[in-house]
Write a structure and sequence with these properties.
It comes from Streptomyces graminofaciens. Keywords: Metal-binding, NAD, Zinc. This is Deacetylase sirtuin-type domain-containing protein. With 288 residues, this protein is α/β, with parallel strands linked by helices. The chain has 10 helices and 11 strands. It has a domain of 161 residues: Rossmann fold, CATH 3.40.50.1220. Helices cover 34% and strands 17% of the residues. Helix 5 crosses helix 7. The chain is globular and about 60 Å long. It binds zinc ion (ZN). The site of zinc ion (ZN) has 7 residues, from loops.
């Protein structure tokens, strides 16, 4: 009797097609949303990890890292930001899933565009000069006014908070450790897009370089857009723009890797492939 494994398995057809399309691609644009970092072990909705990292907030009834709009005292909020960003953005360990993705792209001419603000691409072998992060970077702070377009390295500020952070109460015991704008004294915030005050000046040059690279695509061989984990939370950042890139680039192809929302637009015809798996399962299947 054959015993069937209950483990989910990627079906063969999309995996084989993706393998062929990768072989035929001269250039690859990796376009990623939160689903990729979730598959890589950084799931903002992971309640167990939240409890482990932030026990005081868990006791208050909070269950995920999505805390925008939750009314907390400013020192508790900064305690959260420091612990969360230290974990997500400054972890020193290489990430196996991102490393495998880098190996998959190989020597092909490539770019990355991602809504993720965790720098996991740059931390795992992708060229930082070829990564566009339109939603910002947890590695920087900005003024909330903002009084200047400048941003500041977040690490020294976060280290200062963490040195004064009491894990049990979730409080920052020394208010002098709470960061303020070095220019005007107003509040600061991670340099990520939450509203019109977002300072995008550090990221737009990469966006311009990516636009030029895409403009060269028709003369530089076949483009493959490998979109991973970009659902409908903010489809205007990655998902819809990638459909448009493929739509307007002759010969380009779109691979959409998404366990919940893999659908591709009908007008792209046989130039689009829906892969209904998470990235880890797909990379397992490609390696098999
Ligand atoms: Zn300021």
């Amino acid at each position: 009797m054959t015993v069937q494994s209950d483990a989910p398995r990627a079906s063969v057809q999309p995996v084989d097609t993706l393998r062929t399309w990768l072989d035929e691609a001269d250039r690859v644009l990796v376009a990623a949303g939160a689903g990729l970092s979730a598959a890589a072990g950084y799931d903002y909705g992971d309640a167990e990890r939240f409890k482990e990292l932030l026990p005081a907030l868990h006791r208050l009834g909070l269950r995920s890292r999505y805390l925008l709009g939750v009314p907390l005292p400013d020192d508790m909020m900064w305690g959260y930001w420091a612990v969360h960003i230290d974990d997500i953005r400054f972890g020193a360990q290489p990430n196996p899933l991102y490393r495998r993705l880098r190996a998959l792209v190989g020597d092909r001419d490539h770019w990355v565009m991602t809504s993720n603000v965790d720098a996991l691409f740059a931390r795992n072998g992708f060229d930082p000069d070829r990564i566009f992060t339109p939603q910002g970077d947890y590695g920087q702070l900005q003024c909330t006014v903002p009084c200047v377009r400048e941003t500041w390295d977040a690490k020294p500020y976060l280290d200062r908070i963490l040195a004064a952070y009491d894990r049990e109460s979730g409080r920052v015991t020394d208010r002098a450790a709470l960061p303020v704008c070095p220019n005007c004294g107003a509040d600061v915030f991670p340099n990520v897009r939450v509203g019109p005050e977002f300072v995008d000046s550090a990221f737009m040059p990469a966006g311009d370089r990516l636009t030029r690279w895409l403009g060269d695509a028709p003369r530089s061989g076949r483009l493959l857009v490998l979109e991973i984990g970009a659902g409908f939370n903010t489809p205007g950042v990655i998902r819809w723009p990638m459909e448009n890139v493929v739509r307007h680039t002759p010969g380009a192809r779109l691979v959409r890797v998404n366990p919940g929302h893999p659908d591709v637009p009908a007008d792209l015809g046989d130039r689009a492939l829906a892969v209904p798996f998470a990235a880890d399962l797909l990379l397992d299947a490609l390696a098999g």
